Structure formats: C-alpha cells, structure tokens
Task: inverse folding
C-alpha cells in the first residue's frame, strides 16, 4: 500500500509555511520551504514527483505571493529537471554534500527570480534577500531526516 | 519495480513543454496583460490557503483583545469618547464649510462631490513577493472591491487595488516602482506626478523644472486629475531637493505621509459613479462607438 496523499499533504503544509506571517526581522530568515520539499521528494521519487509537480507548485506559490505568473514555476521546473537527471548520483552524496548542493540551488533560484523580476522594473536588492540561503542550508539536514522518517513511516516508496 | 519503458515522455521533453508554458505565462502577463481577468479566479482558488495561514495571526489578535483588563478598557473608552467629541465638534464646522463651499462652487458653476463611501479592510500580514511593495487585504469582489480602487488610511493615501479575488485582494503601495499618482503641491497648487522609489519610504518626483517653487516639507495632496484618486487626500511630504547645474530637471524626493506596511486597517474609497457594472458598460460603449 502506498500513501501518496502524505506527499501532497507535505506540499500543502510547505505552501502554508511559505506564506505564514512572520515578524519583519525573521522574514528574511524564512527557509525556502518549497525548494527543500521539491528537492527531497524529487530525490526520493523521481518517477512520481517531477517537473510537472514542481511547475504547478511554483504556479500556486506565484499566485499566493502575488508575483509575476510563471516566475517560480519556471525555476522550480528547471530545478526539478536538474535533480531528475542526477538523482542516482545525488542519492550517494553525504549529508554535508547535499547541504552544499541545496545552498547552491537556492542561491541559483533566488538569483533567477531576481533576474526575471528585474526585467520588469528597477529593483533595489537588499542583502537580507540572501539570508534565507543560510537558513535553508541550516535546516536541510534535519528536514531531510524528518521527511525520510515520514516517508518510511507512511511507506511511500 | 516498474518496467523501464512505461515512464511516459522523457524528462527533457517534459521540461521543454513546461518551459514553453512558463515563458508564455511570463510574456503574456508582462507584455500583454492577458491575465488580469483570470487572476480573479486564480486568486479565489488559493484564498483558502491564505485564510488558513492567517488563522494564527487572527487568533492572537482576538486573544490579546480578550485579555484586556477592565481598567484598561475604561481608560481607553474615556480617551476614545474625548477624541470622538473633538472630532464631532470639528465635524460641525466641516458641514458648515461644506455647505459654504457648495454655495460658492454653485456660484462659479463647478460642483464637486467630497463625500465618498468607504469600506474598512483588514491587512493579512502574509508574506508576499519580495520585489513588489504590496499588501493582502481580506476583502474581495464579493464585498465590492474593484481594480484600481484607491486605498487610504487615517493619515493619507496608501495605494490602489492591483489584483482582486472573490475573498481577498492586493493593494499596490505608493512606493512600488510601478506606481504613479498625480499630485498637487498644497502650498502653491503646482501639479506633478509622484512615482514609487522602490524602498519603503522613498518616492520620486520626476520632470520637475529647475526653477520650480518647491521647498522641503511641502505637503503633496492628490490632484484628482487621473480620475482614479479623489482630490485632496495627503500623499507625501517633500524630503529632499537638489538642483544640478546643467541638468534639465531637478532631483526631488518625497516620503509618504503614512507609515506604509505598519497599519492594520485600511479604508477603501468607493466611487459611486464608478460602479463595476458602469465601468464595463462604459468600456462596451467605447468599443461599440463609431470612430
């Protein structure tokens, strides 16, 4: 018996966490939950959760945040493609290596978002835009172990 | 184990289709504005998630309202009563002034309506796009919100409605780089346009002549010229002027009068004449009108 609904439930919780109100000061430190979730589930189930899922999650996030339609969708799909192509290799990485990889991908995605948004209007980039990279890297090992526990507990193989 | 050939289309094919779709979405929205009408449905689809994410915040505020002591309530009540009395006293004079103004205006044959219907909306402090200055509010088309509706708070203009859903809508703030508002300098009636500066308290005033009569501290109010904002609401004060030799325009900056992003309640001004159906009718008329 496979319980795929738990995957969608984690996506739902991830979307909630992505827009959850936080005080101004902590807002910059909010980890990029959706990127972490996509990274984990694509790595675990590359044949089930892939580019199309990432695209629709990005689209929902775009609407939730009120940003340009397709901005997150495009970058999340590209990210999912990257992991789909290399999942066999990444699965043998140590936790430290995957953490670095997650940090690098969050950086690339954030730069991509900035680039797409700056084609539309002039943007002043604050340095706290990039703090979430470090919080994402900090949270990734625990997040990874937690999701693996969930995956084994609910027998999502 | 799944057989290797039942995977469906390859990753690369899927990716290229998805990339094409997203590029189409990006171009369609940024260049051709195709989605302004569909945004309503899209926003309505996701508004349950937004309301769920807002639950803790609203619980906290209602809880903090519940645990106020009797003494505090008494003091607050007294203060509010006093304030109310002063405001009402001012209002007495206001009706008098309004009447007088109306009389004088009828003498010169130019009538203007000062009273607007207002609607109170609460800000949902959810995270929104870091590149845009906008707020989410808990009123939508079901409450009569429409695109381009002016939004103020008790101090001055805040912005205008940029996206609507059935239950939520978004306010584009004055300081967003894509926002512009026609203003008038209160001291000498000079008209200008104020653009968002892309920071929380910075506004730009482009195309001001080098010899323009402006001072730091001048109050800018809406001129009502664009037809979107009603005239007379305070917008910003001029914070910095510098004239450069040889440059054709002066470098003028202003700060909004309200503390944007800090107010919890906002007022939406409803233009009676500009009902949604009226706007649609007007557009239909313009489309059908002979050239």
Result:
């Amino acid at each position: 018996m496979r319980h795929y609904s738990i995957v969608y439930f984690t996506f739902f919780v991830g979307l909630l966490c992505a827009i959850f109100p936080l005080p101004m000061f902590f807002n910059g430190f909010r980890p990029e939950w959706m990127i972490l979730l996509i990274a984990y589930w694509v790595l675990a189930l590359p044949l089930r959760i892939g580019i199309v899922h990432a695209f629709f999650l990005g689209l929902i996030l775009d609407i939730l945040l009120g940003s340009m339609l397709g901005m997150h969708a495009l970058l999340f799909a590209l990210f999912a493609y990257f992991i789909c192509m290399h999942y066999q290799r990444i699965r043998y990485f140590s936790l430290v290596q995957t953490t670095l990889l997650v940090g690098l991908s969050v950086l690339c995605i954030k730069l991509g978002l900035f680039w797409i948004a700056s084609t539309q209007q002039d943007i002043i980039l604050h340095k706290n835009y990039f703090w979430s990279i470090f919080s994402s890297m900090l949270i990734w090992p625990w997040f990874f172990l937690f999701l693996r526990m969930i995956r084994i507990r609910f027998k999502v193989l | 184990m799944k057989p290797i050939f039942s995977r469906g289309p390859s990753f690369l094919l899927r990716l290229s289709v998805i990339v094409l779709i997203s590029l189409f979405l990006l171009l369609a929205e940024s260049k051709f504005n195709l989605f302004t009408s569909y945004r309503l449905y899209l926003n309505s689809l996701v508004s349950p998630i937004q309301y769920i994410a807002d639950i803790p915040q609203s619980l906290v505020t209602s809880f903090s309202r519940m645990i106020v002591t009797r003494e505090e309530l008494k003091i607050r009540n007294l203060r509010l009563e006093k304030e109310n009395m002063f405001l009402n006293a001012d209002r007495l004079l206001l009706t008098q002034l309004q009447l007088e103004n109306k009389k004088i205006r009828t003498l010169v044959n130019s009538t203007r309506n000062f009273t607007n219907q207002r609607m109170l909306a609460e800000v949902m402090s959810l995270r929104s796009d870091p590149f845009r200055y906008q707020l989410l509010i808990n009123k939508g088309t079901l409450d009569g919100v429409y695109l381009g509706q002016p939004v103020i708070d008790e101090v001055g203009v805040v912005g205008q409605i940029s996206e609507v859903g059935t239950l939520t809508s978004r306010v584009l703030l004055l300081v967003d780089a894509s926002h512009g508002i026609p203003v008038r300098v209160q001291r000498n009636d000079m008209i200008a346009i104020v653009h968002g500066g892309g920071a929380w308290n910075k506004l730009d005033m482009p195309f001001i002549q080098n010899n323009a009569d402006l001072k730091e501290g001048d109050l800018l109010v809406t001129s009502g010229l664009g037809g979107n904002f009603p005239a007379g609401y305070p917008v910003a004060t001029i914070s910095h002027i510098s004239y450069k030799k040889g440059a054709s325009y002066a470098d003028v900056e202003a700060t909004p009068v309200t503390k944007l992003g800090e107010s919890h309640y906002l007022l939406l001004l409803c233009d009676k004449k500009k009902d949604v159906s009226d706007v649609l009718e007007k557009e239909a008329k313009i489309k059908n009108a002979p050239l």
